[in-house]
Amino acid sequence: QDIATPVPSPQMAQASGKPYPKLKRGHGVYMRQCAQCHEHRIPSSATLPEWHDKVSAMSMRAGISKEEERDLQIYLGEFSDR
What is the pTM of this model? Predict the structure, then answer.
């Protein structure tokens, strides 16, 4: 099942234990880079290792810096089937 691309909130950060600025930056990277080719939906069935592999593989092609890649990993990790 897919979910719409959620905008991070302070409440999401508090519930996840992840820093709000990193979630917000990861969302920005997704919307600016990933959403150019991919739908504005996040598949919720991916595991953390699957997200890591997918993002790592696409980052170079998409021109995403290592810092942006880390923030994107944190953001996408919130929606994974751990």
Answer: 0.83
